[in-house]
Amino acid sequence: MNATTDLLLAGNALQYRIDGIDILRGPDVAVQRGELVGLIGPNGAGKSTLLRLLCGLETPTTGSVQWCGQALLSLPPAERARRIGYLAQGARAQWPVSVQRVVELGRLPYQGFWASPRAEDSAAVEHAMQLAEVIAYRNRVATTLSGGEQTLVMLARIFATRPQLIFADEPVAALDPYHQLHVMELLRNHAQGDNAAVVVLHDLSLAARFCDRLYLLQHGALFASGTPGAVLTPDNLRAVYGIESRISCDEQGVSVTPVKRVREGHP
Ligand code: ADP
Ligand code: MG
């Protein structure tokens, strides 16, 4: 493995300050080709803010984000939109249009505003709807779907873009167990070859089973990073989440069970 050419995205010493409050305190984050990276940490730790910086939606107060060694924000917006897909936390369909139309919006970075879709656009949309298993409700008005169904539609829209790197902020939070596994498998399958994905999760067992590496964030700074086995230790979970946990391993992988709070109040 060549460390330089395998590096897809790097966030260096990212600081983000708003209204005099330091929301991010200089974490370094790297995403290699072929990796599924998990971002974990308590509510308010700065995960969503970090994701928005890494995909170029916000500008860091200090620090930089590099895409393949080049400043991310120097790439033309359409190029960024083709390379990077972003699923916002709690993403919902915004307009009362059909599911298929929402997924078609994922092709906009490839089209002039008035251009008609080409065969490859239609093929990408069809494939994305199949992947996310939203074909059955392709003609439904997207805003009438349940929250979990809308998550899958918004994910299909991202797959329709065929980005190299996908950022997904708590994509499984509103999903039943079948669809939680489904979405994790989709992200895992995406993160191969030249592609990669970064996913924010609260389910530590899913993080342990599916992710290659984890970043554990606390108060806007990195508390730990590395393999799930190195990061998901009872000591780390006590220090960061304020919980006692049981960590077990069987042929299905690692499971993390929160057992009880070890102190009251937010850690
Ligand atoms: P997480 O996704 O880990 O739950 P966020 O990145 O959403 O955390 O937020 C981190 C902290 O920054 C929170 O305390 C939040 O209230 C604060 N924050 C985020 N965005 C803003 C903003 N625009 N103005 C003020 N505070 C913000
Ligand atoms: Mg968040």
Give your account of this protein's structure.
The chain is of the alpha/beta class and 267 residues long. It has one domain (7-261): P-loop containing nucleotide triphosphate hydrolases (Rossmann fold, 3-Layer(aba) Sandwich), CATH 3.40.50.300. 31% of the residues lie in helices and 29% in strands. The strands form three sheets. It has a six-stranded mixed sheet, sandwiched between helices. Strands 1, 2, 3, 5 and 6 form a five-stranded antiparallel sheet that branches. Helix 4 packs antiparallel against helix 5 (147-161). The termini are far apart. The model has no long low-confidence stretch (mean pLDDT 94). Magnesium ion binds next to helix 1. Residues 47-48, 89, 169 line the site of magnesium ion.
Strand order of the largest sheet: 7-8-9-4-10-11
* Total individual domains: 1
Total of DSSP H or I helical runs spanning 4+ residues: 9
Task: Give the cofactors and ligands.
Answer: adenosine-5'-diphosphate, magnesium ion
User: Helicity, in percent?
Assistant: 25-40%
Instruction: Give the termini distance in whole angstroms.
Output: 39 Å
Q: Per CATH, what is the topology?
A: Rossmann fold
> Unreliable stretches, pLDDT < 50, 5 or more residues?
none
- Work out the radius of gyration: 19 Å
What's the CATH architecture name? 3-Layer(aba) Sandwich
Beta content: 25-35%
The count of DSSP E runs of length 2 or more, i.e. the number of strands, is 13
Task: Give helix and strand order, one letter per element, not per position.
Answer: EEEEHEEHEHHHEHEHEEHHEE
The name of the CATH superfamily reads P-loop containing nucleotide triphosphate hydrolases
The whole-number mean of residue pLDDT values reads 94
Under the CATH scheme, which class? Alpha Beta
The major sheet is characterized as: 6 strands, mixed
Structural class by sheet pairing and helices: alpha/beta
